[in-house]
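ok posting inputs for the 6-O-phosphono-beta-D-glucopyranose job
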Amino acid sequence: MQPGVLPVQNPFLDPLRFEGRVPGVTVVIFGANGDLTKRKLLPALYRLALERRLPQEFAVIGTSRTLMSDEQFREKMRSAVVEFLENSSFDADIWDGFARGILYQPGDLRDPASYTALAGRLGEIEQSRRTGGNVLFYLSTQPSQYELAAAGIGNAGLARGNGWRRLLIEKPFGHDAASARELTAKLHEHFQESDIYRIDHYLGKETVQNILALRFGNGIFEPLWNRRYVNHVQVTAAESIGVEGRGAYYQEAGALRDMIQNHLLQVMATIAMEPSSTYDAQRVRDERAKLLRSIRVMNPEEVGENAVAGQYGPARVGGADIPGFRQEPGVEPEAQVDTYAAATFFIENWRWSGVPFFIRTGKRLPKRVTEIAIEFNSAPHLLFDGHGTVAAPNLLILRIQPEEGISLKFLSKQPGAGMTLRPVSMDFNYGSSFGERTPTAYETLLLDAVLGDATLYTRQDMVEASWRVVEPILEDWANRKFDFPNYPAGSWGPEKADAMLARRGHTWRQP
Ligand code: BG6
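and the output
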């Protein structure tokens, strides 16, 4: 066999199919004319259909204010799926079958008549496609409209029915702990907490889920997974893109709110949480929540030392002129918004006391890469020092994207005379090991919501705990006048972020 070619009988290459029974359901997408629907939701649903994971008794109703017929909506979604389908080819036959269950219902979120019309449509579908009356309401609208939509659904009697009714919402869940609590109170007027699915798509990423498999499915890592052996942890979520036409939203959000409050704190919780006794929604989420509550909330005086804001300025990158954030459409010329955020967090528990977790994220950084680097303490005494040995700490790198995998870096003897040590890497690569296209986060999460599995969804207490962690930073930044822009597009962020680590004797890894 040629080197590098996997044997056909490799069990990893067996198709990994979900064996359970997926119930019939109608997914109602509010905000169906928006970006998320075409970029993520419809491609994910189509992909599930392609893999035959959806039952026959399945339908999608798109709704938004735009007037469109079912046929026009289907056509629009077909083009979107062709354009945004990742790593698979479009199959026209599968599409035709899937598209028969796609419908469109124009409606205004403020108009009760729109919900009555929707109710009529749902009733017809329940009969014609035998969905059992199960409905997943997906709010892909402006966050300011969540309460309105939930109330409209509830007041029209749609939050109850023959089957189950669930509400799925996208972040941001409020803009601080108090508003997150208020939003929940409003949603609870119509839906129980157990029927509310708050999506954090990072939790649906295969490699984020694999952190738990790595930690709790193996015996060798967990004994080292604590303050005695771990020196520090770095979490990097770098993006090379800018704000991509979302200047107006981003101007209100900023990187700390957009990425750290939700995605990266969830990732940190997954790395640091205690094992749950079983893998079920309640227990796994209890452990994540407990961890989030254990993150030390900074005093106002600590923010300057432990958090760094950045904003990209214009630069010439790879022969192209890249505008600065303030030159993006919809952004004010003096905007004080962070397009880069970094912070040092500590966890106040026995396992992690004193171990810094450095988190950073930014737009217009040199490349798209998300990874977790766990640096272990060095050997207490290096026998081989003084023989050209390159000192390098043991690192466990969990790569979330784009090349998904895990690497362990350690020192090895360089061949030849003497004892010279060099860092080497032991690599596991998701793609080549499993030979399967990994499902996108939206595929996983949509299917889970239909199956009623909330393990990978965030919960109200987790959302509030994360807001509490970032609130002192947000407050400090809101009252500060930054000297922005402070990093050129295409660079690794502001110098202050390097200084933040240097103060503790560390440097950022170059992923
Ligand atoms: C979204 C943010 O939640 O996550 C975006 O609003 C960001 O600003 C995106 O680009 C990153 O997601 P991914 O899956 O591309 O890493």
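notes: Residues 201, 239, 258, 370 surround 6-O-phosphono-beta-D-glucopyranose (CB under 6 Å). Residues 1-19 have pLDDT under 50 and may be disordered.
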